[in-house]
Amino acid sequence: TAALAVPGLWTAGCRREPADAATIAPSLRRDTPTGPTRTVRLRAEEIEVEVAPGRVYRTWGYNGAFPGPELRVREGEQLQVVVENHLPEGTTIHWHGVPVPNAMDGVPGLTQDPIAPGQTFTYTFVAAPSGSYLYHSHVGLQLDRGLLGALIIEETTPHVSYDREYTLVLDDFLPGEPRPLTAATPGMRGRGMMGRGMMGGMMGVQVPPYAGSLINGRLPEAAPVFEVRRGERVRLRLLNPSGASTFRFAIDGHAMLVTHADGRPVEPVRVDNLLIGMGERYDVIIEADNPGRWAIVAVPVEGTHPPARAVLHYRESRARGLPSGLPETLHGRPLDYSDLKCLEMPPAQRPDRSFDLLLSGGMMMDPRWTINGQAYPDAEPLEIAQGERVRFRMVNHSMMLHPMHLHGHFFRVGDALKDTVLVPPHMGRVVFDFVADNPGRWFFHCHNLYHLESGMAREVRYR
Ligand code: C2O
Ligand code: CU
């Protein structure tokens, strides 16, 4: 079996199961705005994207752009997003990580019907709590055509100071129409299966055409350049909305101070690199104290695809061009979930209800990805009741990473609050707890889009 280079993920923190005093996530939801209403329009439409000079693809996106426009609001504002669907098929938008009211969650079949071609739908919710989030289509494989973007809810009083900030959207990009796994049979090895669902190059099958790994919609040859001045503290918001890549992220010549995980503030922890799964977000601060022109890389950890690249450039530096090679920091100290100590931790509580969830799939004869052997939508809902403290115990019986995402709630994993958590392969275990404080029908699923599409999902339903 392939040895995955994913240290810094599964030490004690997230699989330790407290014997009797489980600790549960607090409610961070907000129903009433404390600021003005902000209205934004998003047109879902066919667009042309240039991921590098001369490499133009026709795909789908928002407002002509890929990634879509960064939506930026202040915590407490009422956000009103008018979505116009100019696509040839139905669509929705999901506000990934934000505990919105259920009807605003954008999940077709659970919370709304897809917005039909030519139609408009308005999403309204309070922008809270602050943090780095994502928005994306939740219909089929639309996300992987480019229907995604960053949603930033600015804090009123940040717990860390900084002089400048940048958003880095990490992505993988496959030109053309993405294909689901479910169509795969042993005779048909479409790129949907080998390129996106399985580890590239496994079983001797060739890796299909693949445009590459991107930062802010750019291939390495057109790598974005982030300018800094010596002496500045620079905040980077790292977001991974990609269809099928977990990245190891590092900046040459600089350590990172991790300040937020999935938008929640943590005690700052200094690391050299970190793993960021599909749907996860980290905010980090770097001290610009090492003038030069440095490589920023995001290396896909499953498969053999080349890294995404960007450049950290000091105004004082004369250096030009794309720094080549891989940063030393890739081999330094990785972030581990057990390093994360959330600053918003609630008091200890015992769970009222637990679920054991076995994640499996990816076998040659049955390419479906399942939870307890069931593939959504042919899967029983996980039933909970309002006010309950709920525990999910996951074990990964497969050889791939599963970034498991719960809609509508933050959960407690170790001493962190998150909404997406990587469950390591080869019997990796993760336990998380949450409070059932947001009634409705919620999605819980793997954020590898191809695993989701082949069934690795459940409804979490309030009775
Ligand atoms: Cu970003 Cu249901 O997910
Ligand atoms: Cu998965």
TrEMBL record:
Pfam families: Cu-oxidase, Cu-oxidase_2, Cu-oxidase_3. CDD domains: CuRO_1_CumA_like, CuRO_3_CopA. Residues 48-156, 210-316, 362-462 form the Plastocyanin-like domain. The keyword Metal-binding applies. Keywords: Copper, Metal-binding, Oxidoreductase. InterPro entries: Cu-oxidase-like_N (IPR011707), Cu-oxidase_2nd (IPR001117), Cu-oxidase_C (IPR011706), Cu-oxidase_fam (IPR045087), Cu_oxidase_CS (IPR033138), Cu_oxidase_Cu_BS (IPR002355), Cupredoxin (IPR008972), CuRO_3_CopA (IPR034279). One of its GO terms (molecular function) is copper ion binding. Gene3D superfamilies: Cupredoxins - blue copper proteins (2.60.40.420). The keyword Transferase does not apply. This is Multicopper oxidase type 3. It comes from Rhodothermus marinus (strain ATCC 43812 / DSM 4252 / R-10).
